[in-house]
Amino acid sequence: MTPMSTAIRHFPLYIGGERIDTEERAYGLSVRTVLDPGSPDTVRLLHLLREGSEEELHANPHVLCSAALAAPEHGQDALRAAAAAVPRLREIPLEARIGCVEDLHQAFLDHREELSHILRMEGCPKRLAEAQSHVLLDLVRPESLAHARSLLRQEITTPRHTIVLQRQPDGVVCIDPPANTPGTGLIAALALLAGNALVIRVPRSCAGSLSYALHEILIPVLEAHGLPAGALNVLCGDYEVLMEQWLESPLVNSIYYFGSSERGLALERKCVALGKKAILELSGNDGVLVWEDADLDHATAALVESFYGSGQGCIIPKYAIAHPAIADRLLDRLRAAASALRPGDPERSDTVLSPVLRATAFHRCLRESLAAGAVKICGGIQIDLRGEPDPQGLFIEPTVVRVDGFEQAENVAAVREETFFPLLSVVVPDDAPDLLDRCIAFLNANKYGLRNSLWTEDPKVIERFSVAVANGGLLKVNDSHVGHVSCLPDFGGTGHSGGTHGELAYPFLRTSRLQAVATATSRTHPWEAAVGAPSTEY
């Protein structure tokens, strides 16, 4: 693969429309530093990170880019710039905001290849990097923005009034994207559609792809449309420092946080106490129900999505419920499909497996699950890049375990808690006349709630599932569990996945509030309108 220009790129801070450099740096590093820890380039890089010059670091093939690190005063400057931009953003008509975001479609197309290349160099498997690009393109295409327009402003005509239902922006929205998929920060930036001013933190541990997308795609489009300085502010900095500023500052209205349930729910409590809105995208523990008449080939393919990115994603299947009539056949297919997945260099192959840096947690979870009665179907060992067993290997064989009965499943941590490695639990309940209701009850009892899926050909089962499964922001039927659905967001959930007010989350809706404007179209005396004859307009 021909090296691209990203290897020598530097990204400054972006505050109030100004590009600001600092002496401190964060470096975006290639996945090769993990895959080839003993190579001369990696060894030299570790030395250069301690005492090398910037020129020497940029010359190292494992360095993708550098980003200026923000000091505390930069964080305060960004908040002031965002607050100053809010009243000017409110004056920009919705159509103008939509036109600005619409131009992102071509900008993403122009930079798609290089953005995908950077994602692969960071360790995102090629197929998954391409899927991320597809989602970004879909969210800013005309059809998606037309849907956004309908959600942001609606007009109703009655015999006596014209009623406008419109979304008013929260104001200053601070976004903290996840380090494992920093590109989601771009999706959260659709909060701009509602007229918000944004401050986005670039995780210093993964600075490459998000910095590139913000500086090379988003910022140029916003500047070309003449959005107010401060509409978007970009800081690469420490989570603890910036989050403390965001919580303490009276200028901040909302905090958009991606991360663990434990940290996110604690953040929500702090925000409520301080009068701020917390928008949470947290851990997931998605379930898939495979009914007795399911297309097993397609259902198996959807369950194999559990191993995409080696299970290190929130919206992938974590456990399945298999109807006892087809459980053995499904498990046979899963064993074959999971065993066929092999590791590979994310930058150069079509593998869906990624390095796993939490092997100790995986082995502990697997041991506890087996001790609680689960039975291993396949996988369970560490392997190297070639797929050979290696106790120090950076990859883990895709692992499937079987758990018999809902009662036993309640005691298996791999079923009830989020796992973040390639481990899929298949629960096989006892057959009974009320089996569907018990399956739905089990899905609803999950304390997490991002997505749930169903595989069946029975319309009655589909209807019952759709009505009764209240857990989750998105329900999928006979479809890829992780696949993007046009005009729908990939975000949002209930319970420990979305917090107290969690739901399917359009960023521009979650960062705005509903307001009604009622304009009388007939001359009715206020006395009559308030306490006179009953209205007949409805």
Automatic annotation (TrEMBL):
Its source organism is Amycolatopsis panacis
Q: Which keywords label this protein?
A: Oxidoreductase
Task: Enumerate the InterPro entries for this protein.
Answer: Ald_DH/histidinol_DH, Ald_DH_C, Ald_DH_N, Aldehyde_DH_dom, Aldehyde_DH_Superfamily
Q: What domain of life does the UniProt record list for this protein's source?
A: Bacteria
Q: Which residues form the Aldehyde dehydrogenase domain?
A: 59-503
Return the protein name. Aldehyde dehydrogenase
> Per its UniProt record, what SUPFAM superfamilies does this chain match?
ALDH-like
Gene Ontology molecular functions: oxidoreductase activity, acting on the aldehyde or oxo group of donors, NAD or NADP as acceptor
